[in-house]
Amino acid sequence: MDSATGRVQVWARVRPPIEQDHGPSTAVECCESTKMVRVRNDAEAVERILNGQAELSSASPEPKEFAFDGVFGEQSAQRDVFMQIGLPVLREALRGINGTVLAYGQTGSGKTHSLLHQSAKGEEAGLLPRLVASLFLMISQDVANVYDIEAAAVQVYNEQVDDLLNSEHQSGIGHNLNVRDGGVVNGLTWIRCTKPDEMLEAFTRARANVVYAETKMNKASSRSHAIFQLRISKRERVFEASKTGQKVECTIARLNVVDLAGSERVKKSGSEGMRFQEATNINRSLLAFGNVVSALAARKSHVPLRDSKLTRILDGSIGGNCRTALLVCVNGSLEHVGETQNTLEFASRAMRVEVDAKVNTALVEVSAKTLLADLNPEAH
Ligand code: ADP
Ligand code: MG
């Protein structure tokens, strides 16, 4: 099969209560076996409970129900998130199909934890470190093919595109890069990686350059959109010595892991001044992202990809020639029930976006020296 048609796949994850939460965590209920999420739909009762004027009743009389491709409850394991979302996208990327995994949700709902968390005790590691480890394990077991793996990372912050792997990032070099149609960022640093540790080190360095700011809702809230990119090229291993270079067919896949900034409304995070400016721009990019998803879901002829930097970078990665997986993260706390409803409505809409992903191939000139190294795989 040379293509993967279908639609954007959508999962919802409810994070467990944490110390910073205020009020009871009873806004959502999720059932992993039926893949359904129920959210309270009784705004007035919730308001009275939060004001201490009413008792906390066990459930909303008429909860809103949403069905997804999968749901992860409060007790869900990081491993399961990777197995259901990351692994299928990675498998497809190894045969040349582009993939994108996006995390969407309000600040503090568990996006960064789900995607990027690194831990000494492996079981808490997020989707990206697991994806990197699995990628190198899988290619090491494939003796019939030779792979070229590269990594890049960008952030969209205040409608500016920054190269997170440019070592001169702090001095302003690698800032405000241009984005071409098709989501290609001009002048972006790509690092060739031959071991998982090289790639993990690059992504850790990239994360250290992501802009964080303190808001009322989450101390380490990311105010920027962070996009981690992998480029995976594959060609057949040549098993006979060759004195000349050759043109060989490669499959080339681009894989994006996107940690979006918080989707909450500005007034809730108590943003002022500089932070307000950031929140406004975040809303511009997220608003544009929402509009793109709505336009694609409604099969509109015009899709406003050019309205923000984020959507320009994601050109071709939401729907189109890409296998797109969306993880929406929600916080079960009663005080955020409105945001949770918005997030789940958005997720439902995203399920209507069609994708038509194809195996991407290219003819690439490979030198005699490189082909010779094929006979000695250890040397790669
Ligand atoms: P976001 O990136 O959406 O702003 P974070 O991923 O930073 O949110 O999560 C907010 C807080 O909740 C962090 O302290 C994180 O460790 C914790 N957290 C999030 N998801 C989980 C989870 N599934 N299990 C345990 N703690 C979690
Ligand atoms: Mg975050």
Automatic annotation (TrEMBL):
Q: Which domain of life is it from?
A: Eukaryota
Q: Which UniProt keywords apply?
A: ATP-binding, Coiled coil, Microtubule, Motor protein, Nucleotide-binding
State the Gene Ontology terms under molecular function: ATP binding; microtubule binding; microtubule motor activity
Gene Ontology biological process terms from the UniProt entry: microtubule-based movement
Q: Name one GO cellular component term.
A: microtubule
Q: Which residues form the Kinesin motor domain?
A: 7-353
Q: Kindly list the positions annotated as binding ATP.
A: G105, Q106, T107, G108, S109, G110, K111, T112
Q: Which family does it belong to?
A: Belongs to the TRAFAC class myosin-kinesin ATPase superfamily. Kinesin family.
Name the UniProt record assigns to this protein? Kinesin-like protein
Q: Organism, per UniProt?
A: Symbiodinium natans
Q: What is the lineage of its organism?
A: Eukaryota, Sar, Alveolata, Dinophyceae, Suessiales
User: Corresponding gene?
Assistant: KIN7I
